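Researcher: Let's do a round of design. I'm pasting the structure tokens now; please hold your answer until I've finished.
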């Protein structure tokens, strides 16, 4: 079992930046593939970015070049740096331990608005 706690969400103006953090506990964090997902009102939850145990990353087309996922295995933490934010990035962002342990955080709200 992996427990995940997100932080760093909030209100930001278009063009601004935020960094989300996800602290993990309860399992061997460094052996888990991790990801960030988001869910906007009335829409399905979607994958934003993922990172493997070796640091390989992949991104949704809508965030490529603006968002960056990273991990610090010494701190059991995964990050999502979000730059050049747009109103359409507004959503609840969830951290997920994807594999081999499947677990979700409680989510953090990101609102992009002027």
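Researcher: That's everything. Go ahead.
Model: Designed sequence:
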């Amino acid at each position: 079992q992996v427990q995940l706690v997100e932080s760093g969400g909030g209100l930001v103006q278009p063009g601004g930046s935020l960094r989300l953090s996800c602290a993990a506990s309860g399992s061997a964090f460094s052996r888990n593939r991790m990801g960030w997902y988001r869910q906007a009102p009335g829409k399905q939850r979607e994958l934003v970015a993922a990172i493997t145990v070796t640091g390989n990353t992949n991104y949704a087309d809508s965030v490529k070049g603006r968002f960056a996922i990273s991990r610090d295995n010494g701190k059991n933490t995964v990050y999502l740096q979000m730059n050049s934010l747009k109103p359409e990035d507004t959503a609840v962002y969830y951290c997920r331990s994807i594999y081999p342990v499947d677990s979700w955080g409680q989510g953090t709200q990101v609102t992009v608005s002027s």
